[in-house]
């Protein structure tokens, strides 16, 4: 017989250890994705424009958008299995982590030797070794307000709507709270991050000769359609994941639903 796995002194049981490790994986995937999108952000836009009936449809995605849908899937898993409090806690930890990333970018940029920066661009000469760092730093620092506002608004909205639909349906219709919460919150994120990045940091590549809002709506719509599509596609994996994890972790999502309702009613 194989020797049973030893528990750490703070782990109450093998089941408790299993639940905490799964939570750690979900939280790490969420936080890692958030860090990537905060650093990559608008450093590059991917042109995925296509034609429909001979009409070209512009479709421009910021590279930072690519890992973003997974963050909503992770918070939905945490909300369903561990409850609203833990989901909200992870969102706030993500905010602190993003602030930490920005602090490191700022400190790394002011430590010697600081290269000679251009008067207008505030960047070193493109041929210098440090140009790539300062370009990423410029875009990340410039868009920090956008990412923070959009992040908090979207993620907290996602957690709130997820549990709103869960209470309204008495824990039924998993597809509704998964898609309903994510699709609304992702529109808030797409609108906030594009508009704030442009008006606060001038970080969106626009044609100065053309009207601003039609161009901004292309970026907003492109990001939202991408997130909307991924959210729709992850419904089946979410169902399967909740079913498998509920059995593996011995968690009854219905019981979690009632616990969340009791907490809200008690005002805790």
Task: Please explain how this structure is put together.
This protein has 268 residues and is mainly alpha-helical. The protein has one domain (19-266). The protein has helices spanning 14-40, 68-82, 84-110, 131-142, 144-168, 174-201, 212-233, 235-249, 253-266; strands spanning 45-47, 50-52, 55-57, 60-62. The strands form two sheets. Strands 1-4 form a two-stranded antiparallel ribbon. Strand 2 and strand 3 (55-57) form a beta hairpin. The model has no long low-confidence stretch (mean pLDDT 82).
Features:
4% strand, 268 residues, two-stranded antiparallel ribbon, 9 helices, two-stranded antiparallel sheet, mainly alpha, single chain
Give the termini separation. 46 Å
Quickly count the domains.
1
Number of strands: 4
The largest pleated sheet is described as:
2 strands, antiparallel
Strand order within the widest sheet?
A: 1-4
Query: Helical element count?
Result: 9
């Amino acid at each position: 017989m194989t020797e049973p796995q030893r528990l750490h002194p703070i782990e109450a049981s093998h089941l408790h250890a299993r639940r905490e490790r799964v939570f750690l994986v979900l939280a790490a995937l969420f936080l890692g994705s958030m860090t990537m999108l905060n650093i990559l952000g608008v450093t590059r836009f991917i042109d995925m424009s296509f034609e429909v009936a001979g009409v070209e449809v512009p479709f421009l995605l910021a590279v930072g958008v690519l890992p973003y849908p997974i963050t909503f899937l992770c918070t939905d898993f945490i909300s369903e299995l561990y409850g609203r409090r833990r989901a909200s806690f992870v969102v706030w930890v993500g905010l602190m982590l993003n602030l930490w990333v920005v602090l490191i970018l700022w400190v790394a940029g002011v430590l010697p030797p600081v290269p000679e920066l251009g008067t207008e661009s505030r960047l070193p000469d493109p041929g210098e070794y440090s140009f790539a760092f300062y370009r990423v730093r410029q875009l990340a620092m410039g868009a920090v307000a956008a990412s923070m506002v959009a992040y908090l608004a979207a993620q907290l909205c996602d957690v709130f709507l997820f549990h709103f639909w869960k209470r309204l349906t008495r824990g039924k219709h998993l597809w509704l709270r998964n898609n309903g919460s994510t699709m609304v919150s992702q529109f808030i994120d797409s609108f906030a991050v594009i508009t704030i990045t442009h008006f606060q940091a001038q970080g969106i590549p626009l044609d100065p000769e053309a009207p601003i809002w039609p161009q901004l709506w292309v970026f907003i719509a492109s990001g939202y359609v991408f997130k909307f599509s991924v959210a729709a596609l992850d419904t089946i994996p979410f169902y399967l994941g909740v079913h498998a994890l509920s059995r593996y972790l011995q968690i009854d999502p219905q019981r979690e639903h009632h616990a969340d309702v009791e907490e809200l009613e008690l005002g805790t």
